[in-house]
Amino acid sequence: MDKSTASDVQPGRTLNEFFAASDARVDRWRTLNRAAKALAAGAGTAADKLRKEAAAALEELGPLEDFNGYPGTHLMGQVNERLKEADWNGLARLVQRLSSALLTNSYREQAGDWEADDEGEARTPDVLPPSVGRGQSRRPYFEVLMVSPAERRMWPGIRDTFRRLRREEDRFVYEPVVVGSFEDAVLAVIFNYNLQSIVISDGFAFNSQYAMPGLREAVARNLPAGAGPGMTDMGSALAKVIRMIRPELDVFLMTDRDVAKLAGSEAAADLRRVFYGVEEPMEIHLAIQDGIKDRYDTPYFDNLKNYAARPIGTFHALPIARGKSIFKSNWIRDMGEFYGANLFLAESSATTGGLDSLLEPTGNIKLAQEKAARALGGDRTFFVTNGTSTSNKIVHQALLRPGDIVLIDRDCHKSHHYGIVLAGAQPLYIDAFPITKYSMYGSLAIKPIKEALLQLKAEGKLDRARMLVLTNCTFDGHVANVERTMLECLAIKPDLIFLWDEAWFGFARFSPFLRQRTGMGATAKLREMFKDPEYKKRYEESKGGSNPLPDPAKVRLRVYETDSVHKSMSALRQSSIIVVADQDYHTAEAAFREAIFTHSSTSPNLQLIASIDVARRQMELEGYELVQRAMQLAIEIRREINTHPLISKYFHAATPAEMIPDEYRKSGFADYGTPGKTVADAWKALREDEFFLDPTRITVLCGAAGYDGSQFKALLASDYDIQINKTSRNSVLVQININNTRSDMAHLIKALADMSRAIDKKLAEGGEGAKAAHAARVKSLVEDVPDLPNFSHFHDAFRDEPKSKTSEGHMRAAFYMAYDPDNLEYIKLFDKKIDERLKSGPEMVSAKFVIPYPPGFPIMVPGQVISQETITFMRKLDVKEIHGFDAAKGLELLRHDVLAKRKGKASDR
Questions:
Q1: How far is CA 717 from CA 710, 713, 721, 723, 746, in A?
Q2: Residue 245 has pLDDT above 70, yes or no
Q3: 158 band by pLDDT with thresholds 50, 70 and 90
Q4: DSSP 8-state symbol, 877
Q5: What span, in angstroms and rounded, lies between the C-alpha atoms of 395 and 780?
Q6: 296 Cβ neighbours under 8 A, 6+ residues apart
């Protein structure tokens, strides 16, 4: 093969091409299929052109097919032979079958898809869900990568050796894929979604047989010093790189070195098992099967299925358990018909009989949580069935004490604000950077966080700074540089606790691009960094400089991450998880248990627990594939919206350059499909920039169409059956997740095109008057946007040190003062009294959290002094939903005379 034709497997071109490699493969098969059909039908004078087209598609497929088990060398040989012999009918039949099998993934279940003999009755691939089509009894299919030093002519023998080891009692069936070099192994790990296990045999080459400068550059950045064609321990280095890309994969090493010494070394940390030579192929086969079983087993879900199948007599307070009150009913039997019997058979309020207690797990829930910790990169996890709102409150209550100072973004989820109230801690609000033109905030930059910490230190209050709370990623997709944030904060306060609210970002663990920007991903890197002797040298060199590193001898790495499993994985609504990587967890364990008792229901939904367990299984086994496809789909949607000649007149997908100010994008990364930008550029942005934009969260600007966000959302729902969640003054948020398909993309793009045509027609038929009205509406939405209000300060009555330059305050005291109606007064929003008091006093102090939707963040919190900019913003708001505000009553305020009496008192402090 001409190595120059391998450009389709080079991730050195554009980010979209990197994610689209799998679909590009299917597209090449479609091209080959079309050409083969035309040749079989009799192409006449076009035959030569079609033959060349088919040959070109087949040549482009060559490199990718080398990294995949299906169709495999035998079937690919048949395709090449039929093309060479001009057997157009045979070629068309075979290519049609292979193309269909790849498109539907039927080859994972249909043995006939692996046969070259295509005579006989045609079959329709089964694409229905198991509960609709065949039964659920099946053996999941996967592929195993064999990295071998053997000559290529020996590879068929390697594949046959492991095929012959298949047994009827095996729970899974796999196909071996053989490569002969370090770089080809990395290529296969990146592009073959079916891979679940890697078997490395020492002695293989380093360089790929294909031209691949982009990959070589990406791999080189993550290799140990001196790595390359001449390194002696290439097997361990390859295992480390595989862990970096896909940490969920099982990696086995076959070697003729001193296996006892190797197995006990640090180099074996990335290996599931070490084998001596090739003396035990059956043991390797069984180890492969056992590794998959370890990830496939779902302790709680499996036990719940067993429980549902038993003839249980229920004498507890749950009438719907076993479903008899449903299925025997004359009036609500349709509920049972809708949900099916299993839902009710699997219901119980018991924690015995094979089940377990969520509050104090000792059995299968405990095992399920341990597996989730492995999958998500933490030391331990806790399942929560009341949503991440409850997860956040649990962490706050467990770790905070009255009087502790919490550095927090005011634009975070309301559960954090309420959690701080319940804990009695004092919030020190720091404002995120504003994106005024879209009526939204970005994220919290490192500089103001450090300034707040340094000011606390200057005032002798750093010991009270207990926790930093950050949302990552934000609702609108702003992803923090987690590693840099923690490094720079720990240099000031070595024992600061970090709570990363990753409610929207749980899926990122399974992306090699985004993992480094997660709480657990960055924690793993920092743990390795602080153990490295070279880091100690760098620390010593940094002392006394403008940006010192944390002292590794003093650092206490304490990191908590909360994930809404239901938001980005296949779990039922309200399924959440707390992931812990806290080296001092033993000091908080008792308090953590109490917080779980406080906030968790004693009657948790068993189906939610099971769905978290199953979601973990799915992400460990196919999360990489699902997330890669979701990211690719999101990038394609962005491109389609912004390049479509009609849609782009009225709608626009905001780019990273538009969502992140230049000062936080030093790499200059502007968009995902910018011509000339490569995967290496994206890696650089992820590594260096302060913020990165999650491509799956697409802010679609609709102001140019004359729609505000709420109007646009309603129109999409009513006329096009498209559901959208978050809106702003002139945008909506389109979220792409592992559930979305290319059909969904077509649905959205067609809706936008139809809307654009309707606007075009309306303006054309309405004349100058319609155009002028449209322009005025667009101006009001796009240009006449109110400035976003920053947090002002807490009233002196809620401040320990009113003259302090830091802004923390006793929000809990203000919150509970509002419970007494005698402490309250009300002023309507447009009353002149508001303007008079803003000018001459007394200060107006909010009694409540006031949260308009959109934008969905509190513009007032209890105890906050209300500023002119807050009033201006509220008066310009054109939204129907404002939590904490009753327009008929007006602003709910704490009476100034009550505050005057409280001022200076030491109670509650």
A1: 11, 6, 5, 5, 16
A2: yes
A3: very high
A4: -
A5: 42
A6: 140, 171, 172, 617, 621
Q: How far apart are CA 133 and CA 157, in angstroms?
A: 37
> Which residue's entry shows tokens 């009918």?
89
Would you place residue 218 in the very low, low, confident or very high pLDDT band (cuts 50, 70, 90)? Answer: low
Contacts 24+ apart (CB under 8 A), 80-87: 83/51, 83/54, 83/55, 83/58, 86/51
Tens-digit pLDDT profile for residues 542-551:
998 888 999 9
Query: Any idea which of 8-22, 241-255, 440-454 has the lowest mean pLDDT?
Result: 8-22
Which residue in the block uniquely carries the two structure tokens 């071996």? 176
Q: Which long-range contacts (CB under 8 A, 24 or more apart) does 543-549 make?
A: 547/488, 547/491, 548/491, 549/487, 549/491
* Sign for the pseudo-dihedral over CA of 301, 302, 303, 306: positive
> Do 522 and 461 contact (CB within 8 A), yes or no?
no
pLDDT tens string 617-673 = 999 999 999 999 999 999 999 999 999 999 999 999 999 999 999 999 999 999 987
Please determine, for residue 482, whether its predicted confidence score (pLDDT) is greater than 70. yes
Closest of 870, 831, 868, 825 to residue 847, by C-alpha? 825
Q: Which tokens belong to 620? A: 């460990």
- The CA distances from residue 636 to 324, 364, 583, 643, in Å, are 49, 41, 42, 10
Q: Which two tokens stand for residue 394?
A: 């649990």
Nearest to 868 by CA among 890, 896, 841: 841
The secondary structure of the chain in percent helix, strand, coil, rounded to multiples of 5, reads 50, 15, 35
Q: Mean pLDDT, the chain, as a whole number?
A: 90
Q: Which residues pair with 827 in a beta bridge?
A: 891
Angle at 193 between CA 189 and CA 197, to 5 degrees: 60
Q: Which of 402, 614, 578, 608 is nearest to 503 (CA)?
A: 578
What's the CA gap between 826 and 803, in Å, rounded? 29
Q: Of all residues in the chain, what percent carry a pLDDT higher than 90?
A: 75
- Separation in Å, CA 826 to CA 844, 887, 890: 10, 10, 6
Length of the chain: 909
- Per-residue burial over 723-735, b if 16 or more Cβ lie within 10 Å, else e, is ebebbbbbbbbbb
Query: Going by C-beta distance under 8 Å and a sequence separation of 6 or more, which residues neighbour residue 169?
Result: none
Which contiguous run of DSSP H or E holds residue 417?
helix 414-423
Q: Which helix (H) or strand (E) holds 179?
A: strand 173-179
φ, ψ (nearest 5 deg) of residue 259: -65, -30
Q: What is residue 250's DSSP assignment?
A: E
In three-state secondary structure terms, 653 is: strand
**27 burial via Cβ count (<10 Å: 0-12, 13-18, 19+):** middle
Q: How far apart are CA 749 and CA 639, in angstroms?
A: 11
d(CA 72, CA 115): 11
- Which tokens hold the place of 302? 């499996």
Burial class for 85, CB neighbours closer than 10 Å (0-12, 13-18, 19+):
exposed
Helix (H, G, I), strand (E, B) or coil at 210: coil
| Separation CA 517–CA 508 (nearest Å) | 8
CB 75 within 8 A of CB 114: yes
Tokens for 291?
A: 């590794």
CA-to-CA distance for 879 and 753, rounded, in angstroms? Answer: 27
pTM of the model: 0.93
What mean pLDDT do residues 886-894 have? Answer: 95
Please name the helix (run of DSSP H) or strand (run of DSSP E) that holds residue 196, with its range, or none.
strand 195-201
146 in Cβ contact with 176 (< 8 Å): yes
Whole-angstrom distance, CA of residue 832 vs CA of residue 846: 18
130: preceding bond cis by omega (within 30 degrees): no
Distance (Å, whole) CA 18 – CA 16: 5
pLDDT in tens, 246-280: 999 999 999 888 878 888 887 788 899 989 876 68
Region label for 42, one of left (φ > 0), alpha (ψ between -120 and 50) or beta (otherwise): left
